[in-house]
Every structure is written in C-alpha cells, then in structure tokens.
Amino acid sequence: MGISIALAGNPNSGKTTLFNVLTGARQHVGNYPGVTVEKKQGQCVSGTDEFHVVDLPGTYSLSAYSLEEMVARDFIVKEQPAMVVNIVDASNLERNLYLTLQFMEMGTPVCIALNMMDVAKKRGIDIDIEKLSALLGVPVVPMVARTGKGRDDLLKTVADHAKIRTKSLKISYGRDIDQTLDEMVEKISSENFLTERYLPRWVALKYLENDVQILEMGKGQDLETHAWLTSAAQNLARHLDTTLDTHPEGMIADQRYGFIASILKHGVMTWSRDQNRLELSDKIDKILTHRFLGPLLMVAVLMGLYQFTFAYSAVPVAWCENLFAWLGGRVDSLLSDGLLKSLMISGIIDGVGGVLGFVPLIMFMFLGISFLEDSGYLARMAFMLDRVFRLFGLHGASVMAFIVSGGIAGGCAVPGVMAARTLKSPKERLATLLTVPFMNCGAKLPVYALLVAAFFSENQARVMLIITLISWAGALLVAKLLRSTLIQGPATPFVMELPPYRLPTFKGLAIHTWERTWQYIKKAGTVILGISIILWAMMTFPRLDNSQMGDPVQAGTRQAAVQTAGEENVNRASAALRHSIAGRMGMVLEPVTRLAGFDWQTNIALVGGFAAKEVVVSTLGTAYSLGDVDPEDAGSLSERLQSSPGWGPVTAFSLILFTIFYSPCFVAVVCIAKEAGSWKWGAFSMAFNTLLALGVSILFFQTATWIMG
Ligand code: GDP
Ligand code: MG
C-alpha cells in the first residue's frame, strides 16, 4: 500500500495547499474515529513510489489541551506513519519549529517541508537549509506549496528517509528538570511503564507537563509507578516554584524556545534587511555574546566573581579558623595527653575543621555562580565556549559538563562526569569524561585558597583567574591530544538551549547557594571525617618506641608540640612522623617529587588528596604540625607554610599546578570507569593525570628556580 505519510504543521502553514498539490484529485474526506475532527486522506505517486497521505489537524503544540492536538499525536502513535512531513512556515520559523521539536522528542521519523520560501525571501529572510538540517538532524526540503515548487524533491526525500527512525531529540531542560527526568526515565524503563507505545523520556516529560491523557493512561496501567512519577513531578514543581518562581511546563517551553533560538543564532537565519523587532534578551545577547566583546566580558565577569569571593569571604573565613583554633585549645586543655587527644585534635578538629573553615568562601562562590546560572548568563558562556571546544575535538554539550565540574570554580567532577551523558557520540563523551577532572572542583578550592592567601596575597583574584585559565587550557590540550591519538573520530553538530534572561530572585539564590554549601558541609562531616581519621592513624602508627625516642604521643599533637616547645620535642615529633606509614610513603616518593619542589610532608598530603582533595589542606596542617616547623611560629597553617624552609611562591605554584592536573579523587575515578564502561579508563585517568601533573610541576619548578637563581 505504499509509504504512509502524515502531514502536520501549524494552522496556516500551507498544509491543505500542500496536501492538494500532492494528491490532486485522488483524495477523500472523512472523520477520525469517534471525534468530529475532519480527516483527509489521499494517494500520490512519484516515480516508482506510491504514497498514502493523511492530513493531520493543524496544531501549534502536542499537548493534550485540545482535541486537535490529541488526534494528531494519537494518530502518530497508533498508526506509526513511515514519516511525518512537518510543514514549517519559513517566514515564521521560530514559532513553527516548536511543533517540530515535539515530534522529534517523540522519536517519530520527521522531515521538514520548509514552506513559504517565497514569502520569507520577500521579507528579506535568508535561511541556510543545510545548516538547519544538520543542526536539527532531520531532512529539510524548501518549498513553495502554492506553486507546487519542491513537490518532487519532498517526495524523493520522504522515500529515501522513510522508516529511518529519527534519533529522538534530547533537549536539556536545565539542571533541576534534567535530574528529575533522568530519575523518572530510569523508573519508567525498569517498570516498562507505557513503553510499548512511548519513549520513556517522553512519558516522563508528559508527567512533568501534567498531561491529562498520559496521566490517565498511566493510572490505568500501573498505579504504583504512576504515584511514584506523580510525586516526583510534584516535588520538582514545588522546588521550581520556590527557587525560580516558575513551573515545569513554563520552564520546558522556555527551554524549547531557547533551543530553537540557539539553532537560529548559529547562522541558520540571517536578515538581508534590518529587523527592528528584537526581543530584550536578543538585545542583551547582541552585546554579551558578541564575537569579540563577549569573551572579554566573560573574562571580566569571572574576574569579578573571584574578586567578590575572596574579598567578602576573608573575614568570615578568619572567624571560622579562630573558632576551630579555640576548639582545639579547649580540647587540648580538657583532655590529658594521649592517643585520644591526638585523635581529637590532629585527626578530627584539624581535619574536618580545615575543610569547614572554607565554608564561607565556598558559600560566596556558590552565591556568585547561582546568580550567573539563574540569570541565564551561564548558558551564554557555554554558548561562546562551544566555538572553542570544537577546535579541540570536544562537543558543545561538553561545556556544561566542564562548568558543572568546576569550570568556573566550586563544582564537582562526579556530577560533571554524569552530565557528559548528554553527549551522543561515544568518542566525544569519553574525551569529556577524561578531561572534566582538571576543572577547579570545590575540593581543590581550599587548596588554592590556602596557597594563594599565603603566597600571593596581593593578587588573589588574578591568580585565581590564572589557575582557571590554566586548568581550561590543560583540559582542552589534553582533549586534543586524546582525540588525535587514542580516541579519534569525527565531530558531531551541536545546538544548545539559550533560555531568556531573568533577574534571579533572592529566594532562589539563597536556596541554590544553601543546597550546594550544605552538600559541602555534609561531605566534611562524613567522608572527610572518615578519611581524616584514617590519615591520622597512618601518620601516627606505627609508633616510635618510647625507649627510642621519648614519648611520641605527647609530641604527636600540634598543641602539645607548641606548648612544650623546644628543639628536642620537635625533633622527636618529626622522627615519629617519619616513622609512621604515611611518613614512610612520603619519603619514598620524595626523590622524585623533590624535582617539583615537594618535600615528604607535602607528599603525605597529596597521597591523602587522592581519597578526597579537601584532605590536602588538612593533611598539610597535620603533617606540618607534626613536622620540623619552628614551634615558636605556629599560627595558622598559611603562616606556618610561609615560614617553612623550602616554601615560597614557586613551590606554592608548583603545588597548585600539581593539584590541577593530578589523579581525580577516588569517587570520580569510580564514576569515570562506570560511565566509560571500563576500568581501563579509570586506571588510565589516574596514571595519565598523575604523570602529567608531575611533568608540568617539575617543568615549572625547574624553570622557575633556574630563572630566579
Ligand atoms: P493550512 O491552514 O495549513 O491548511 O494552510 P492553507 O493551505 O490553507 O494555506 C494558508 C494560506 O497560505 C493560503 O492562502 C495559501 O494560498 C497560502 N500559501 C500556502 N502555501 C504558500 C506558499 O508556499 N507561498 C505563499 N505565498 N502562500 C502560500
Ligand atoms: Mg487547512
């Protein structure tokens, strides 16, 4: 019976005209079963192919709000036409593509009949057909239905592409919605919920959109899953309401339009004549995403963010440090010397306190980033960086993964690695997975903050910007290296969502900032606590024999070392640390790390940092309090480092470089292995990154000391 095609499109896009051009006299009119919507069907022939054409009702959307929309989407689901020919009014592209996206999200094979090309031309709109087709991933045929122009091309294209299932489109709906969608998709897939007819992601979207028809169907199929999905959707709705003052449906529509706007901005649509009907967002974008001004402004925004963070967090960070110092002092005077006291002070208070001390800094950073994100500027940064990314064999969708990992500062590679799931090409995905850990995650921040405050106090924001630029440059170069050696393959096209600019609400900012800060605090209270205790044990055992060296435990706490100050005690403490497991590890590594300027105490911290990067700071604290620092000087850790022999700006920057590049933390490695589908890549990431870091640090340290001395 030939190839079945369904004509779909907005009202007045020329659907009826096209239908007549295709079928001529071979058509008849009836009704869709059970409803009063008119159904026109007809036949047509082109070459050896025969087509059966159905004219769907004209709609703007595929929600369940109107009878027409229901009829259109039910027809597609039940009759499964070989191809949906979506008629799009070329003179009104932005609005018409909204429907196209929804067909693509359903996963139906779609072909665009780009109608009214004559009208578009008369209005001075120039459309790059090939680009549009490549960016959307569907065939596009230009037409003038009224004169029949493009008819044969259209039929030929349909015959060529029919039955090839369009890769279903996955638009990103922003972090909150995407996360919920992923969870819902997992549930839907595992329960096979409505999946014999619909794609899981589409069902999830309909639950978020409160689609009456799908909700009804779902209730009938499996009440328990239905309830689970409804409550997930409600939770999200509540969250969006409080944080962004919007609701899922509105946000979903915004992102769809944003996606379209971004396609059109990629040079698909150009005006040969001036158009003065630019929306406010477009006007702002004219400047903020300008080819030359845009990147400059972006750097300025970053600089402002770092300035803001360092300037305003300095005072509360000092309060926190004092608080923990006071706490340590209290414990010191309350407990008698012994293992318990050492554990409490060196293990718990120094370890967890070292991490919690940076909470104000992290909070200010997150506040700034939440502002960028909620206002819509973060998406523009990704949009601009996209151009750069392609040069290095990455994909525009990698940008978000980089930013989530801490591309600006204060992210985490674990969700970053997860975010790489949106990449469709496995090779671009792998390259992204392996390079996101170079970003400045929240755990590396305290390390930078400590070293920058101690050795570059004049230029904190500028050094932070340099650190950021180095991490990006390193990530991009490594990506390029990998993509031209181990993971070669072609680049795939990309379009990203540009939501309209919004003024962030105070409440939204507060909630987003708190959510992330709380994550950080929670981690310090659980994972970091555990690791600190383990590291403390590694730095305390095996203990030096009393007869050998006096009482190591007494000397084993910072306070004890400080209070009973004296050369002898310090030597004893240092010897005890060297004798411990961790000390031995640090010393075994020293001959190599010396080349990069790291002594054995720093090595202990770096080994600990593999468990979680936050630990670097706290371990340095413990190691230096146990080590050969002059106890008279014992103040905050940064003061202690400043006064330590062998420490200076060069060593500090070498350590910063090492921290940027060396092995991802343990959790991130596990995630990389899982997402890449092989432990091989997890191991590769550890080994490669550590060697790279060592190489970079040694090169820097040797060059810098040679130049200076
Ligand atoms: P429908 O609502 O989608 O069925 O749209 P129609 O087929 O009824 O077309 C709406 C109007 O657009 C009619 O006046 C058509 O003559 C006109 N039209 C359709 N296609 C074209 C075209 O390619 N160029 C121009 N200039 N007008 C067209
Ligand atoms: Mg019509």
Descriptive notes:
This protein is an alpha/beta fold and 709 residues long. It has 4 domains: 3-161, Rossmann fold (3-Layer(aba) Sandwich); 175-271, Orthogonal Bundle (Helix Hairpins); 293-484, no CATH class; 523-707, no CATH class. 65% of the residues lie in helices and 7% in strands. The chain is built from 33 helices and 9 strands. The strands form 2 sheets. Strands 2-3-4-1-5-6-8 form a 7-stranded mixed beta sheet, sandwiched between helices. The chain has a two-stranded antiparallel sheet with strand order 7-9. The longest helix has 42 residues, at 293-334. The chain is elongated. The site of guanosine-5'-diphosphate has 16 residues, from helix 1 and helix 4.
Estimated helix fraction: 55-70%
Distance between the termini: 86 Å
* Arithmetic mean pLDDT: 86
Task: Please report the number of helical segments.
Answer: 33
Bound molecules: guanosine-5'-diphosphate, magnesium ion
Strand order of the largest sheet: 2-3-4-1-5-6-8
State Rg: 31 Å
What key phrases describe this protein's structure?
single chain; 709 residues; alpha/beta; Rossmann fold; Helix Hairpins; 4 domains; seven-stranded mixed sheet; two-stranded antiparallel sheet; 33 helices; 9 strands; 65% helix; binds guanosine-5'-diphosphate; binds magnesium ion
